[in-house]
Each structure stands twice: as C-alpha cells, then as structure tokens.
Amino acid sequence: MSTDETEGAGGRDTTTGKREYRMADLAREAGITVRTLRFYRERGLVPPPRREGRIAWYDGTHLTRLRTITALLERGHTLGGIADLLAAFEGGRDVAELLGLDGASPTPWSRETPVRLGAEELADTFAGQVTAENLAAALDIGYLAVDGEEFVHVSRRLLDASTELVRAGVPLSAVLEAGRRVRAHADALAEIFTDLIRTHARPEHTVRTLEQLRPVSQTVVDAEVSMAMDRHIRANADTWTQDTAPREDATHRGTTST
DNA sequence: ATTCTTACA
DNA sequence: TGTAAGGA
C-alpha cells in the first residue's frame, strides 16, 4: 500500500509515453471513488476502457473526461444533463474535421477567428443554458465544433454577439434559432452579390472580382441592416418602451433622408 | 492473490 | 454511493 509511484505507477506505453491507469489509479487521480467511476461508466459518461483480460486500462482522455464531469457536476449540472452534453460532444467530432479546425487548415476563405473553449468555460459563459438541444443546434449551424476535449467557436465576433444577447436576457435557444435564420438570409445576400458578378464579369476575371466584391457587399449589407434597424426600432418603439427604455424618444429623430 | 463485477443495502 | 461476495 505504500508504493508511492506517482509517475511510474501502472502500465505505460514505452514508445509514446502515454500513461495508463487501472481503475483505482484513475479514480484516485480524478478524486472520485472506484464505485463512482463504475457508475459513470454504466451511464455512458465515460468511454469504455481498453480491456486486457479482466484488467481495465484507462488513459489520459478518461482522466480529462472525469475532471470535466466533476467540474460540470460542481457547477450544478445533473448527471443526465452531462450525459446528454457529452453525447452531443461526441456527435460533433466530425464537424471539426469537416471545418478543418482541429488540424492546420489555413482557412483563407474566412476572416473569422476561431475561439477555443473548454467545456466548463462554455457552460460558464452561457450560464446553465448549454443543454444538449442548444449544443446540437450550435453544432448544426456550424457555430460550434469539437476538437478533442475542447469546443471551438468558429467566430469570435459571433461568440461575443451571442454572449451579449444571452446576457441581455435572450435565451440561448432563441439566439441560436435567430442565428439560423440570419444564416439563411446571409446566404441569400451573398448569392445576390456573387450572381451579380457571375453574370456581368468576364469568366477570367470572376474570381478576382468576387474577392474585391467582399468588402463592398459587406458595406452594402451593413448600411442596409443599419437603416432597417432604424425603421424597425421606430416602428416597435411604443411596444417595449415600457420596461426597456423609460424615456428616450428624441434620439431617433433624424435617421436617413430617403 | 489480485482485479473487477454483480448484487444488495 | 458504499460494501460485501463471487468470477476470472
């Protein structure tokens, strides 16, 4: 019982140096009991270990998984919720590869900077709204991808926007649904601009002109959305001035002269 | 004999 | 989730 082998305990791969743990070792490292480890495994929260006869060998991924579970548990999540989250977690694995986010993909076609997030960091950002449904929706839209034991948001700007909306009281599910609708309209807008060039520019100049079109189209959309927001804010102002903006009407006077 | 599972509390 | 009993 007094074998204090902190690093050399258990079996380890001599070629890669990956540590492996037997049940008691892993449980001790994760700060849980063996019974709890078994409990998690029965519910699918922990992937099956490598079986060598009757001995179960766990590795570092199991350890990080257990630490994730513990962190989520301390944050108030239920075991069932964690199970759902981890299920979606696994389900999005191929999404990251599809987007080329886990490897060294240059992604020259996107100017958005990805953001890496730990699972608990993500849960903390959206304050208990990271349900399996929301996670699945975020993965489906392409906002979120999974890389190893971490999440990757495809756009810092969109992540910040989502965070701001949620903090303003908008449910995350509604934010995601809105994002889905915006995505559809954005696609339609991009189609308008690209079609414009495809039909009017000569084929050999098409690609280059499309790239030049990017900032122009963004400017047009930005201006149009800005003006449209003006119109809609004014149109609905009387509806929600009661609890949001008590008395501010003079600021929306001179908008645009059309 | 050790390690893990089953079953019971 | 702890513990005792049993299979390999």
Automatic annotation (TrEMBL):
Keyword vocabulary terms for this entry: DNA-binding
Region of interest: Disordered: 1-20, 237-258
Record InterPro entries: DNA-bd_dom_put_sf, MerR-type_HTH_dom, MerR_fam
Keyword DNA-binding part of the UniProt annotation: yes
GO molecular function: DNA binding; DNA-binding transcription factor activity
Domain HTH merR-type: 20-88
Keyword Ion transport: no
Protein name as annotated: MerR family transcriptional regulator
Native source organism of the sequence: Streptomyces mobaraensis
